[in-house]
Amino acid sequence: MKLPLLGADDIAALGETGAVDALEAALSGGLDPEAAPARHHVDVPGGELLIMPASTGQVTGVKIAGVAPANPARGLPRITGSYLLLDAPTLVPLALLDGAALTTLRTPAVSALAIRHLTGPVVRHLVLFGTGPQAYGHLAAVLAERHVERVTVIGRNQDRAEALAEHARRLGVEARTGRARGAGEVDTADLVLCCTTSATPLFDGALVPDGATVVAVGSHTRDAREVDTTLVTRSAVVVESRAAALSEAGDLLIPMAEGDFGAEDIDANLAELVTGGGPGGEPAGFAGPRFFKSVGMGWEDLAVAAAVYRNTAS
């Protein structure tokens, strides 16, 4: 049997809303992120190899992703990889997907699912840190979920920041670039997206208004973080799973090492947010900011890959 190869166009055809809906359906259907297999990390000469398995009663899959920090300087993508989707009962391969394109769609979709449950229908001011593929993907995902009135783009490279702001304007959103560290920007935001490779906090967490939502997706290592301890301790904290966050999320582990945050301070995982079963009450009703930290998990790739496969077969 010839194995179908599903490329970037096939994956993009699912769309941002289709990907978010696939993730929400998986969680509403009873998938437990806490029971999902852990990600495996392997150091290799070019950077890091990530092996991410997952399974449900219907489908099984594994993503092999490469993280190559030197690639952008070579004109190559920082994230590479492939995804193998299999039939769960027989383990017969169903399709091979472009792993980088899958990640580009999946990661913003996870953030957008959290935003679906943490914010109102209108985002008056979105502050977006980052200018790479995930920044573009997150902008598209948020626009698919919410009406955004204006966007401020903040990046280390001013030309790339202006290019993303221009892209937002072409999508019909008022947009401009802002100053590094967000001074004078995050204090008026109701949604802040952190899509960078920074290992140190991007802004002063004391500036974020009560009721605003902050999403951080850029790091998955214990010693790197995009937000500071102040933001974490002020916020209702939501994670994909407690197990994954407490293993990989420097945004939480560094405040824990400082003695200012504990595992018990996590208000909900993503399944609890979606189903309303969180032990800490409803984060959207919390008086302070809401903070969603994502590190990326294999079940998310599986849910979106299966949806892409079904979409191409229909």
UniProtKB/TrEMBL annotation:
InterPro entries: NAD(P)-bd_dom_sf, ODC_Mu_crystall, ODC_N. It holds the Pfam family OCD_Mu_crystall. This is Ornithine cyclodeaminase family protein. It comes from Streptomyces pulveraceus.
